[in-house]
Design goal:
Distance between the termini: 56 Å
Helix content: 55-70%
Length: 390
Amino acid sequence: MALSLLNTRGCEIDQQRFTWRELVQKPISKLDDDAFTRVRIILMNGVENEALRFGHMAARFNAELRLPLARVRRAEQHQATMINWLLGADHSPLETTIGYEQVAIELTASVAQHEPDPYLAQVYRFGLLEDFDHMYRYAALLDRLEGKDANNILQSYTDILPGRPTAVEHRAPEDDLRRHYDAGRAQFLTKLHAITLVAAEYQTHDYYMNIGPLFSDPMARQLYAEIASIEEQHVTQYSSLLDPSESWLEQWVLHEANEVYNYHNCLEQETNTQVKAIWERFLDYELGHFNLACEMLEKYEKRDPAEIVTSDLPQPIEFKSHREFVRQTLLAEANLRANGTEIVNQANEGMSSVAYRNHMNSEGSPSEQVAAGYIWRPGTELNRKIAVTH
């Protein structure tokens, strides 16, 4: 479906209404629905939460934007609710964690392959291998605590293998910052990619910070603490890709355009008809939000939105398995590290990161301990025990 970003009005903000009953719809099935339906749900919840977060920060510094931002945030609060509540109670918190990591892997793999800026593409591949390893560590924990095979969630789309070991991902803050794109020269797609990855990683960080303390198992509590720290590093990394010279209004226009872009991608690839209808509805809503942001840009900065966005939406994110790309990246780049803003060979890693990591791991590494001796095999730990006893 072709969509002209600059020539489609969308639903007016005053018409974006909800009832409590429609906010809480029938949840998806963790086994019967395609795994990429869950991927899209988790991603779009993250994108909505990023919009809410940005809207609150922008309102703090722009008195004249407080009312229009508040009106948009109210709709986006309810959009986020309807989306997030699509995850059913048949998912344990740890199974949802596996879903979050599948989002990080397949989303980042798609973005890395289509990113037009070579430096940013390398940054995305760098982060990809770290999330890939997180999947492996959580899969080991799922096997240990619940006797479940993570592939029941992944549905064979995503490998369960070690990546760049989580224990070596810990870096000093100065080695997590990256060079930002140039707002005047960067392609529209580059800006959308950066905002999308910030949204996804920020949501993952917040989820782990909230879920981790709810486990009684000491190893689970430590593992969530360790990986939540890496997720904060990822938020730092991807946030630093945004050009700080962009105004609040320019960033607002980009955030709304990013929501349109992502809802359009989801709508075009969704297989669940109920969820597809939600993507279609919210695409219409976000076009309304985008046009409101453009009006504010024109009113207060006297700028044409066409200076910031293109009317045609760029290359979509591909919701599919990127197994071969991930495997090739793993073979070629697992030993890369960071030194300042640069991705470097292991021998050239920043010494401050080495010192920081050595201290953090000085009393043991939860991610190493939880996966000690773990090799993923089809089936669950319980099934293997039963097989042994017979």
